[in-house]
Amino acid sequence: MKRSVLLLTWTFLAFVACSSGAEETKTAPTDKVELKDPPLKVGYSIPFGGDKFELKNLKYAKSVGVDYVEVSGMSAFIDDQRNFKLSELEIKERLKWAKKNADEAGIKIWSIHMPFGANLDLSLVNETNRRDVVAKQGRLVELLEILEPQIILFHPSYYLGLNERDLRKAQLIKSAKELNEVVKSINATMVIENLLGPELLKDENRERPLLRTVQETIEIMNRLPNSIGSAVDMNHIKNPEELILAMGSRMKSVHIADGTGKHENHYFPCSVKGQNDWTLILAALDKAGYRGPFMYESAYDDEKDLMVCYKMLYNNYLNASY
Ligand SMILES: [Zn+2]
User: Fold this and answer.
1) What's the CA-to-centroid distance between 29 and ligand 1, angstroms?
2) Which of 10, 118, 284, 300 has the most CB atoms lying inside 10 A of its own CB?
3) pLDDT digits (tens, 9 = 90+) for 194-232
4) Where are the domains of the chain?
């Protein structure tokens, strides 16, 4: 779809949604726009720390077509030195508060974005440190059972040193197998997200994280148990449809955002700032049989834009297909 058409359509739909509510986007003042409902539910990533889990905010999101959330911001519970910041009792109380509000608003917790960083890296070479990462991440997963998430999402690594990639892969696989057992014990599915890596080197002393290309993601996923799934982030790789098709039914979750494949842009897909071809992406999601939420991890102005944008992308895809 031409980008100018996308922008024009988005401007029009956003105007209709603003002036008369998201439900009425089907009727244009002068011309009739028949928009078909898209197949997936809509979700978006919200941090634990802010006010997004307050009941009124969750209710608002639900009222404009959001059914799921991914919970991020786990740094509210654990610091970058792997120390829990709160007592377990306090963590449980906060999680219960969030779950109660989500239930009352009718919002389901689809996924948890687990914490990441140099000292929370599943692929650490030092065994004492790696075991401590697994222990702390595992304990956090057990506490997060309160939220009844379906998906627990991990980054495969942080930045790597030079020429240690193979060793890091082996360490990641060890950690993932161990954490997968904890994730299974709370009736959730573990997924590992592809990360940004347009070139191997981040700078002269560091390599980009693991799962930076389609080929590397395939290689590592093939070495992991089948019960561990893949999460495809649309702003971490150029032409994400290629990764979606390579993962197929192994893909259990997504991060919807636009970008250039070179930076952590997390642009809103209808902003026309990124380079993704959403028709190709939606076709790939269809072909892969993905049935989870259309989970935004992107900038947005207002929650009401999330469903409107997905609906527009979906109708563009339908019109391009036939
Ligand atoms: Zn992501």
Assistant:
1) 38
2) 284
3) 999 999 999 999 999 999 999 999 999 999 999 999 999
4) 37-321
